[in-house]
Amino acid sequence: MSLVLVNLLDGLVTGLLLFMLCSGLTLIFSMMGVLNFAHASFYMLGAYFGYQISTYVGFWPALLIAPVIVGVAGALVERYGLRRVHKFGHVPELIFTFGLALLIEEVVQFFWGKSQMAFEEPEILKFAAFSIAGNAFPAYKVFMIFIAVGIFLVLLYILTRTRVGLIIQAALSYPETVQNLGHNVPLVFMGVFGVGTALAGLAGVIAGPVLGTFPGMAVVLGTIVFVTIVVGGLGSLWGALAASLLIGWLQTFAASYNVTMRDVLLTLGLTEPADLATSALRDLWTLTLPQIGPILPYLLMVLVLAFRPQGLFGKRET
Amino acid sequence: MSAPAAIELEGLSKSFGRVEIIRDVTLAIAKGERHAIIGPNGAGKSTLFNLITGKYHPTDGRVRLNGEAVDQLKPYEINRRGLSRSFQITNIFPRMSVFENIRCGLLWAMEYKYSFWHLVDRQPDLTRRTEEILSEINMSDKRDTLAGVLTYAEQRALEIGITIAGGADIIMLDEPTAGMSASETEYIVGLIRKVTESKTLVVVEHDMGVVFDLADRISVLVYGEIIASDTPENVRASAAVQEAYLGTALEEEA
Amino acid sequence: MSDALRPLAPWGVAALVLAVLPFIFASGAALTVMNQMAITIIFALAYNMLLGQGGMLSFGHAVYMGLGGFFCVHLMNWVEYDNLWLPLPLLPLFGGLFGLFFAMIVGTFSTRRAGTVFAMISLGVGELIAACSIIVVAFFGGEEGVSGDRTMGPTVFGLDFASQQEVYYLSAIWLMISAAAMYLYSRTPAGRMANAVRDNEERAEFLGYSQRKVRFMSFCASGFFAGIAGALFAINFEILTEENLNLATSGSVLLITFLGGAGFFIGPIIGAIVFTLLQTVLSLYTEIWQLYLGILFVATVMFFPSGLTGLIAIHFRPYHLGKISVLTKPYALIALPALGLALASASVLEIAFHARHAALGDEQMSLFGLSFNSHHPLPLIAALALGALCIWLLRRQLPSFREAWDEANYAGGPS
Amino acid sequence: MRTLAGLILGTLIALSSAVAAWAADTVKIAFIDPLSGPFAATGEQGLVHYQFAAEELVNKQGGVLGGKKFEIVPFDNKISPKESLIQLKVAIDQGIRFIAQGNSSGVANALTDAIKKHNRRNPDKRVIFLNYSAVDPALTNAKCNFWHFRFDANADIKMDALTDIIAKSDDIKKIYLIGQDYSFGKAVAAAAVKYLGAKRPDIEIVGNELHPIGKVKDFTPYARKIMASGADAIITGNWGSDMVGLGKSVIASGFKKPIYTYYAASTGITKTFGAEGKGPLKLVQEGAINPAPSERMTAYMKAFKAKHPDKDMGQPRIANVIEMLAKAIDKAGSATDMVAVAKALEGMEHDSIFGSKIVMRAKDHQAIQDVHILAHTDEGIDFDLDNSGFGLKVESTVKMAAADSETTCKMKRP
Fold first, then answer.
1. What is the rounded distance in angstroms from the CA atom of residue B211 to the CA atom of residue B246?
2. Which residues of chain A have pLDDT under 50?
3. Structural domain tally of chain B?
4. Which of A94, A181, C157, C364 is packed most tightly, with the most Cβ within 10 A?
């Protein structure tokens, strides 16, 4: 039972981290209609900038400065890249962000090389906050949870209680109308893109020390982020939250329990083939849940898209 | 009863969420009739169009084409039953040539369907028919121009060409003269008259001159309901129509 | 030449070039690169049936090529061990059929919509199959893949396909067949309607065509030709691995097609040739070739969305107007500074990279035949100065270039 | 200055046969490994060591065959089997007869298969495959061939040595096996089960699982399972970011007992673990560096560090490859008669610079040598890794590990 609790907490950390990326991505998608393939690359930039800055001035200033730099970089990409491609249509936009993702990975390797960076959590948080049945829960993860929840509350406040938030909400539903009202929609776009990428950057600084800071980190997370917002429903912040947590827990629990296909098949009344080593079905019989855990999100996405294209919480069809 | 009407609407309703856009519309349009639907902005004319052509499915009621219920069919299935439409916002294939645009309109009707064993350039009948329609809409000289770079009026003419190409018996045109100058409008109306000879025509139109010039009968749609459906003279004379809508429109025209 | 033969001329030239190439580039490596080019061309053409002609952006098309290839390696092994009678030249047909079969399964639910939904489903299916390749060892052979031997089948006209040359001609023949078939497909009602649905799916529906079925057909056809490419891969490399299925391969075919120009039939062909050369040659000269490739790709999307072929195609109008000569001088004037700028930018990148990553003490680097100390600021300053000079020269030439360009595209007499 | 025209010309040269043989006075060794992409760090490190070893151990000693120098020609295979095969063709076209590769058993499998076919189809242009790091046991068992030589201890041998040590430790009662889901990870797990069962049947294997390679973002759930199992030790074949992720999660969850690994060192990994890894982290590997086994090795290492302060000698066996190849060529009296060179390598005995005797076993072309258990520590380290102050120190040694082990190899000799 205690293991379930530990897994719930671990899954929460993973899910909230995902949400920090998804919130920005879904905002960008709902405003501009473009799925930013390079979103996880900004997350990676956040981790690398965070690492570099922390070697000069320490972790805490880096936590503030790195996301700002990433946000500015994101805003510039929107202003000088995406806006230019926008007029060609959605497919070229998607291709542009795809190319950008490739390019950012190369640029990161250009500056930092290919090895893993020794990016560490600050000393002050290097202790076990508590432990459950011998499982230490690092203080840093508690800190991650607080940051993620804090961001969610701030976003919620901005979107529902401030003028800017109302414009954004309006722009989500009626882009042309808002433009007619005299609001500078391109500026709002640039702002949203900047803030979205800054959020990704912040997630990068926070995740860098735990999940590793290396050139492949964007790819590892990138497609999962996509999957999450598609499953949650494109353009729905609540959907993004729900799907992030769902996928966080799905992956955590799938990795935690060694359910084997053999048990399942035997329960179903099938008999194990005698010549298992050479049987064509040998892979099916030896399959375990942790083995397929990381691909479950993709399966979930394909199913959702095939049967409920608007996603679990989405209102509009993509 | 005589032969079924070309289009028959029976108690047709459509709601989006809680908003009822079309309320209990009943209407019959006879074969060969030229019918116009008019009404103020937001009356639901385009929605009614989309209900008939299968883009939307009605919340309630029936649409019949030559007596056959079609309200649950997809647009392409309705098209295959002899109904063809144009759009309010120009709806052509911008990255294909004028010739190819028209040819796309012909393919299904000429029984090529999804064939991948016919080469379109090697079908003399297809080419001949395309050329005929091009000359019918006076665009033979623009044959190889990309549709996307035509002038607005030319695109509208092309759109009509695509719409009639398949030889459908029922032609529905959604504001064919919207945004045109007087001379362009005159030209397009002439064109419509020519190419829809002996066909059933349903047209949504803002321009009253066009409507009274073209239509045999007129239906007036206000807030999703048909308040009158009669000959142009009677509609013009109807007090209800005057009150609801026409008065202001006629004043504007004057 | 008579009018009836005119459309056949490019095909004749292509066949001739393909036949002659091995006599010019005879080494095993050159043949391997050319074989790879042929495979990439077929694959990119198949991909463009989706992207360019059907308006469907796929992030997982490697799956159909890979599955076709895997199936063919198994066929080769059956030929070798189980006495299956199958001459090697027919293998691509079976690879194609397997690709087609799988595309038909996935197509039933992925072609319902174009745009983002299609892109996401293709990504999901791609990741799924790539991940399965590690799990389902019986078919995919795990991470080391499945290998076979192409020479074990019955000989055809005395050929056993042990030599690269024989494989090259086999690939070349299948390249001609596939390219011709794909071209002809684009000229059939199904192919034409694929373009129509790409341009305006709603309009196509009101002309009697189901957009879903039109897309489904393009998707299946594309899967078939991708499978042929996979089979040729199997014949060439005699091994298939997870790499043939993963996102990187799917991404690079997108890159190739877009770079070449998705709007043109020959776009993917040009893209495949340029990309393969860049990949093999550039990586010989520089470690950061992928960076250049990334820059080139992003620049293409931003500035020349019609790709390399588009760049060539915009010269047709001046050519037909007989004014191509107007452009000769302006091109000559900007060629040198443009080349200088490209070299200067590359130099800046190379010097910075070397300064940052070279071993300590190894401060000498050579670039374009010059040898210098990368840690000294002078070379970097020199490169930057050259770049600045070239930009200045380019800016000076730009107005007159633009003028000449407008003039060359102006249908009337000299204005 | 090489302009665009030069580049095009270069292309043609690279593609044409003109390149076939440059200078016959060097013995060229093609180094086919990743020099770009995610695994480039490991590849570059290998390349640097190869170049250094060729220079230091052969060229400065007067070369082979009375003066011929070794030249290492790098080829970037982007860790892709397909690219490797293309680069193999390019190398063969350039007249190169020795192919060195190490990173990824998948690539090694593709190469050994291709080389076998190539040598059968082109008897006049045969090549030899010097595998310095790919440790999939199959390469010297079911898939062995006459042209392939492995200089690293394979996964089975390493496990044999490791379990020898574990068998002596009475504290260990429960062991958790975890690895990446592919042939190497599976080979490690299978070997562990086999040897533990034979040597210490009382040890309970409380976990034996595989996770998808390179796809796990967060290893915490695995760490929780390991904690819950009450394991006294972990054995893993993980490498790269999967190694770092697993190790860090396990240690963060409070695991204080040994973690036996194959590849948890260098290319940033040692630095990333730092002080946290001290204690639990152990490595099983050939080649002793701390304490230095000989004066010769100290000098060699110092020279290396002077030239490449940012690089590590992560794969000591590379020096053995170079020295043994040089000996074989001299013995065969030819650098072009591959059958003779291969025969000379077969059964060769060699005293490694790293202090071990090495025998290239004739029956399967597997090098038999000392295998060490190394501890990740900052005490008594003469040569650290990643310039982190931490390095690997020999904790225990198994002499000539698995010298009499079985092989399923049925070597066919020409």
1. 12
2. 317-318
3. 1
4. A94
